[in-house]
């Protein structure tokens, strides 16, 4: 197939003056090169498209692809991850990963939690702070955990994210509101084990690739998978595959959340346990990072014996099969 690759390149935004944390979710050139190399090794032809804005221009000019590998995160607004797939839907171009609805719901963490909770999936009790005055109305038991409502890659998460009293909550929310210019998600802190569950496929075809426990070592930001801990992953974090009863329950919960949220092709669901060991949904990652060494999904695949090329192959197979079924056409693979 002729496969286009849509992405936001970190270097482009750095050159435009954005700081490191602002652009941490975007792809490095190493990631794009790895995706492209894997696609080429599978026999496909590739074309780098770039951001959703460039994609819009290309589509308007008449460019088309058999499939687009979508990794475009966008920069502004709650719908930023939905922009590229919305454009592709408008022009009838097939693409890998989730649709605009799912990407918008999952980016807004409180909305995702509403959806899964309504489906009977446990998630920590929560509230949303849109202005400093909203803090006064929060009646959740401490400690609490605060983070920007629509960020990934642990942006905005630090040792100060765990708050123990109303004063810490007020100061923390004011800091996040000022820094990230978006509401703050406030949820009950869970002290138990933390897992990330890798999933491949869509709907009834979805299956768990594996489950990985995340353990933050003692250091400057213990207990919390923060931005700095993730940035210094090799020195601060230990991971391991899990096959015990807690892992089995987290797996069941993650797969249910994946299906209820409408996630497609590949991604991750993050799970954390409470003091009694009960698993709770934290958030969904339907546009997973794909750096061949550093990102969680490729790491999990590698730990399960799947190569990076094999992971890309499964993503493309899922997307192409899904689109062939939807259009009534023969699978192009």
From TrEMBL:
InterPro entries: ATP-grasp, ATP_grasp_subdomain_1, D-Ala_lig_Van_CS, Dala_Dala_lig_C
Localisation: Cytoplasm
Gene3D superfamilies: ATP-grasp fold, A domain (3.30.1490.20), ATP-grasp fold, B domain (3.30.470.20)
Enzyme Commission (EC) number: 6.3.2.4
GO cellular component terms attached to this protein's record: cytoplasm
GO-annotated biological processes: peptidoglycan biosynthetic process; regulation of cell shape
Alphabetically ordered keywords of this record: ATP-binding, Cell shape, Cytoplasm, Ligase, Nucleotide-binding, Peptidoglycan synthesis
Pfam families per the UniProt record, alphabetical: Dala_Dala_lig_C
Family statement drawn from the similarity comment of this UniProt entry: Belongs to the D-alanine--D-alanine ligase family.
Protein name listed in UniProt: D-alanine--D-alanine ligase
Organism: Phyllobacterium pellucidum
Lineage, opening ranks: Bacteria, Pseudomonadati, Pseudomonadota, Alphaproteobacteria, Hyphomicrobiales
């Amino acid at each position: 197939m002729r496969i286009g690759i849509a992405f936001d390149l970190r270097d482009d935004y750095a050159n435009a003056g954005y700081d490191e944390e602002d652009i941490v979710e975007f792809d490095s050139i190493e990631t794009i090169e790895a995706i492209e190399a894997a696609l080429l090794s599978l026999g496909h032809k590739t074309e780098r498209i770039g951001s959703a804005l460039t994609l819009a221009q290309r589509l308007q000019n008449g460019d088309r692809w058999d499939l687009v590998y979508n990794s475009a995160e966008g920069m502004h607004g709650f719908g930023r991850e939905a922009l590229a797939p919305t454009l592709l839907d408008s022009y009838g171009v097939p693409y890998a990963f989730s649709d605009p609805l799912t990407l918008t719901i999952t980016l807004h963490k409180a909305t995702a939690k509403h959806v899964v909770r309504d489906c009977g999936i446990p998630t920590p009790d929560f509230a949303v702070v849109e202005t400093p005055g909203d803090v006064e109305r929060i009646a959740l038991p401490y400690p609490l955990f605060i983070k920007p409502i629509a960020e990934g890659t642990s942006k905005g998460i630090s040792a100060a994210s765990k708050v123990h009293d109303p004063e810490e909550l007020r100061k923390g929310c004011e800091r996040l509101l000022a820094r990230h210019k978006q509401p703050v998600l406030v949820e009950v802190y869970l002290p138990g084990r933390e897992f990330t569950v890798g999933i491949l496929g869509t709907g009834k075809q979805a299956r768990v690739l594996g489950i990985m426990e995340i353990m933050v070592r003692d250091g400057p930001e213990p207990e919390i998978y923060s931005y700095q801990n993730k940035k210094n992953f090799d020195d601060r974090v230990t991971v391991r595959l899990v096959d015990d009863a807690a892992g089995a329950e987290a797996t069941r919960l993650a797969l249910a959340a994946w299906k209820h949220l409408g996630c497609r092709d590949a991604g991750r669901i993050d799970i954390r346990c409470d003091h009694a060991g009960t698993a709770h949904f934290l958030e969904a990652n339907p546009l997973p990072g794909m750096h061949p060494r550093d990102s969680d999904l490729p790491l999990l695949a590698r730990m399960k014996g799947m190569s990076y090329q094999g992971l890309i192959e499964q993503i493309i197979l899922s997307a192409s099969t899904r689109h062939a079924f939807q259009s009534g056409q023969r699978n192009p693979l």
